Structures are given as C-alpha cells and as structure tokens.
Structure prediction request, 343 residues.
Amino acid sequence: MLYKVMDKSIYKDFIKALISNCEFIGPKKKDKSVHDFVPIKNISELDANYMRTTIPPAKKILFPPNEQLVAYELGENINVRSVVESSKKILFGINAWDINGMNFLDKFFTTDFIDENYVAKREKLLVIGMDSEPTETNFSPSMGAEYAKDGFDIYLAELKNKYFVRIATPKGNEIVEIYAKTRDASAEDFKEYDKYMEDYRMKFKVDVDIKNFYDNFELAYSNEDSWREIAKDCYSCGSCNLVCPTCFCFNVKDDIELNLKYGSKTREWDSCMIPEYGLVAGGHNFRPDKENRLKQRYRCKLKTFVDKFGKYACVGCGRCIEACLAKINIAEDINSVKKEVSI
Ligand code: SF4
Ligand code: SF4
Prediction:
C-alpha cells in the first residue's frame, strides 16, 4: 500500500481528467434521498457526498440484474456461444462497506465455480473508494466493514485541506501518476488521518452483537415461535434481497425466438424471500413459510458463509432495513437472539 496526499485544489481537475479519458461510473442524485451509480459524462452530475445509501448497490456493475450468458442457434448443427461482456471502467465514490460487499462477491463467484462473466468485469474495473455518510440504520463497524483494507485500487479520505490517498494496486498507482499531483504522506498526515477515522467511526450509531448471534444461532434456530414473531409482518416481497450488496442468488431462464432458430440463456437476480424460491418440479416447495425463509436468510448471511469463507455475507449497510415495508430490522433481530439466549 502506498500512502499519498493530494491537495484539495486539484481534486476537480483529477476527476475531470478521469471523466474525459475513461468510462467513469459514479454516484448521481436520483431524487431527494436516493443516489445511483451511473455513467458520468460531466463532473456536475457527480455527487460523491451522498447521505443515503445507494439503491441498488454498486454490485450491479459486476453482477447485473439481467445478464445474457449464452446465445445459441439451432439448425443442422447447434451453435452455442458464451456471452461475456466487459469493458474497462472506473467505479468512483464507492464506500468501504460496499467495497467489502464486492470482496464477499469476489469470494463467492470464484470459489466453487469461476464465474467468467463476473471475473471479466471485476478484472477490468478500477475502483476508487471514498467514505460516505452512514445512515441511521448502518451497523458496518459491528461487521468490520466500515473500513476497506482491500478490494480497491485507490481510496480517498477527505481531510481538511487535502485527501489522504491509499493506493493499493499498480493500476491505481498508474492512474494517480498520470492524472494527479500527490506527495508522500508525512507522519503529520497519518496523525490527521487517524483522527479522521476515529471521528468517522463515531458517526455510526447502531451496534449489533454479532459474535453472540453467531455463537448462539443454532440454539435460536429451533425456536419456531420466535421466528414466527420476527417474520409475522413479512410480505415476502424480496426487496431486502434486491437492495443487498452481498446477495448473489440468481435464476437462469431460456428465451427462444418464435422461429425456433435462435435462443439465449439469461440470468436474473432472484430472492430467497419469495415463496417461489423453494418451489421445484412437481409442485413441492422446500420452504413454503415466510418464517423459515427469513431464518434461512439470516443463517446464510450470518453463519453459513462465516463457516465457509470466514466472512459474513452482510456488511451492515442497513439497506434492507430501509427497504422493508414491514419494518423487519436485521440489526434488532441479531440483538434479539442475544436476549433470547440469555433468558
Ligand atoms: S423482510 Fe421485508 S423486504 Fe424482506 S421480503 Fe419480508 S417484507 Fe419484503
Ligand atoms: S443483509 Fe441488509 S444490512 Fe446486511 S449487507 Fe444486506 S442489505 Fe446490508
């Protein structure tokens, strides 16, 4: 890791140069409270000081909601062609918890099976991270996700008159050398940065006792009454999955043209919270009850992948809490397991 300092006066020129020379994706205000990561053509469109979390998360750049995987042609011979679309892009202004969300997806899409489509996009993506203001539902520090140690090329932290710049990769260093004037960080700069991080962490207001949840989850798992109570208002709408930076479930569907000559396979985001998720041929549903679906969602995020990857499949961003019309709150539910077990 290289540690540099960039004067604030050159920040705008740095961004303008990146926008002019690269395909640049950054946060843009969509309405009063929502930002989205979209292609930016002019610096005036960019709003890196977003207060609300971005919905949908930036994972859509690597794992799009709809993505063609295969195209085929039927005839005397059957021609099958895999479709892998990727191009060099800069993803700018993504915060630490969403970078940690992408780090989780990196593991998922490269462990048991190398997902060519995901990997091609990830390899061509240059990530420039930046802290953003947490919402009142954010519990990233409890999940160890308010700070990104890796998964980015460059990370900017805004200090008083300068940016503290962490450069994690040769690709990131090249961009900084071409487009920005920086100097090596001094002991004074590090001191200022440490204080900045200390103040930044104070902005997160929600704490969860994740260790207790992990240790006691299996005890709570069989308490059907408690899960029925937690899930009683759930509409099974799946919004919590769609806004989540770490949810990875997808469905693959076939489309064939009416002339029966051409077809394609497309993957689409799926949701473990909707009733059809557990439905199989013959009409059997492995998970017909909403309380079982919610329980399984929590197990997947907060237990299964800790055992498999040593990483939670939740970065504490709080989006699912904001998106849930039934006011189901994962942070409260994590803490409720503690109460239940200590009674
Ligand atoms: S927990 Fe909330 S967001 Fe998720 S499926 Fe149920 S109602 Fe929808
Ligand atoms: S489960 Fe909820 S809080 Fe955790 S990463 Fe997903 S959206 Fe964020």
